[in-house]
Amino acid sequence: MDWNAAGIIPLDTYREKRQHIPVEPVYYEEHEGVTGWRLYRYEEVKLAFTRHDLFSSQDTQPSDDPIESSILRTDPPKHRQLRMLVSKAFSPRVIEAMESSIRSLAEELFDRAEAAGQFELMADLASPLPVSVIARMLGVPNEDFERFKQWSEDLVGNNGERFQQCQQEMTVYFKEIADERRRNPQDDLITKLAEAQVEGEKLSEIELIGFCILLLVAGNETTTNLIASAFLCIDGLPEVRAELLANRSLIPAALEEVFRYCSPVQLTYRTIKEDMELCGHQLRAGDPAFLYIGSANHDETVFEQPELFNLHRNPNPHVGLGSGIHYCLGAQLARLEARVVLETLLERFPNFRVDHTVPLERIESNMMFGPKRLPVVLAGDGAGVSRYA
Ligand code: HEM
After folding, report:
1. Ligand 1 in contact with 320 (CB < 6 A)?
2. 163-172, 285-294, 317-326, 379-388: which range is least confident on average?
3. Percent of the chain whose predicted confidence (pLDDT) is above 90
4. Is the CB of 210 within 6 Å of ligand 1?
5. What does DSSP say about strands 288-292 and 267-272: parallel, antiparallel, or unpaired?
6. Percent of the chain with pLDDT strictly greater than 70
7. From CA 173, how far away is CA 154, in angstroms rounded?
């Protein structure tokens, strides 16, 4: 499997940037109209993640945009407070309890695909599954699912106007639900968020709404792409498929290698907090910095033979889910969803194959990696005989 040759992830470019460098591992570059420091090596990316006192997540301009008020875009001490408020809802116990409903949902989506006789992974499973999981967690009523799915797509699409409009619509929507839950509490995340208190403080209205919207932005497209990349890796690597079929307990390790190998989030950003020196460069307060997660996860000084998908890579200290105080809040949920999908897939369709007659095209995003479409032939047991051929 050679992603690079397909021009899918710019691994050659990343390697050149890292290796040009023992002396200057950071670049001040313009890319698509945005100038800033670009960090390609593991060491500097990790530094930027963990030194939040030097690399800020906060916007330089005050904003009333709900996402800009969310946990992802705050620094301590505010960040610590927000994280404490929301982390209970994502505790291992809460997430583990969701396994059987996620499994039923995965089974149902595969059943539908089987009945339909065709399967386009993105539209038929990888996208609806995480959206439904978040919608249920939040307590969005069933009749609003379609609207919710549409918002989720519009939030990660390329239409800026629609993005703003969508945030406004969701603000009205979630405000109404939050008000209703304050009057009439339910066993759902919106009620928990509306009631939660840390040090006597509750989430403000905009913080609550920002968090709900962030869950859609941060949690859906990313998990969708993780699932798609896992399909691509297993399809392209017969020895990995054989090992997974022989030993399903290797699925979690396979997923960690997918996080590293084709990181669903390829880059994130920070703002330099105060003037500082890094690798011989003078970085100024207010300068943007871009953390190339996809490159750090292929850094040959940390990962032996990074271009190989190694099911037995141990340790595997990838930064696909970030690191430090902003480490992905939904990490366990994403892992659970992807594991359940792969277990169900390999159980029911061990001989599935990606339909390579459709060219693999990357979604139009530098920040995310995933295919636009992924038609898959769902083949069951017996020498690749399709269950619906
Ligand atoms: C494959 C799936 C996922 C990937 C690759 C991923 C990746 C990441 C990364 C790299 C960060 C750190 C960003 C930064 O520091 O700038 C992050 C943070 C975050 N993620 Fe995820 N994520 C995934 C799934 C999810 C899910 C399922 C949820 C929730 C339902 C979620 C919610 C969040 C939140 C709330 C944050 C911000 C945490 C904070 O600021 O303290 N993510 N994620």
Report:
1. yes
2. 379-388
3. 63
4. no
5. antiparallel
6. 92
7. 15
297 Cβ contact list (under 8 Å, min separation 6)? 42, 259, 260, 261, 263, 303, 306, 318, 319, 320
- Check pocket membership of 306 for ligand 1, CB cut-off 6 A: no
What is the pTM assigned to this prediction?
Answer: 0.93
pLDDT of residue 207: 86
User: What is the 1 CA–ligand 1 centroid distance (Å)?
Assistant: 27
In total, the chain counts a number of residues equal to 389
pLDDT for residue 75: 96
CB of residue 223 inside a 6 A radius of ligand 1: yes
- In this structure, are residues 240 and 233 in contact, taking their beta carbons and an 8 Å threshold? yes
Ligand 1 and 191: CB distance under 6 A: no
Tell me, letter by letter, the H, E, C secondary structure of 164-223: HHHHHHHHHHHHHHHHHHHHCCCCCHHHHHHHCEECCEECCHHHHHHHHHHHHHHHHHHH
Q: Which of 223, 259, 271, 328 to mutate to test the pocket of ligand 1 (most atoms within 8 A of CB)?
A: 328
Other residues' Cβ atoms within 10 Å of the Cβ of residue 310? 16
For each of the domains in the chain, give its residue range(s) and CATH number, in order of start. 11-377 (1.10.630.10)
Asked if residues 109 and 129 have their Cβ atoms less than 8 Å apart, the reply is yes
In this structure, are residues 264 and 366 in contact, taking their beta carbons and an 8 Å threshold? no
Distance CA 53, CA 252 (A): 33
pLDDT averaged over every residue in the chain: 89
Q: Cα 66–72–73 angle (5° rounding)?
A: 65
Give the count of alpha carbons within 13 A of 322, CB side only. 20
CA dist 84 to 79, 182, 204, 207, 257, Å?
Answer: 9, 20, 14, 13, 29
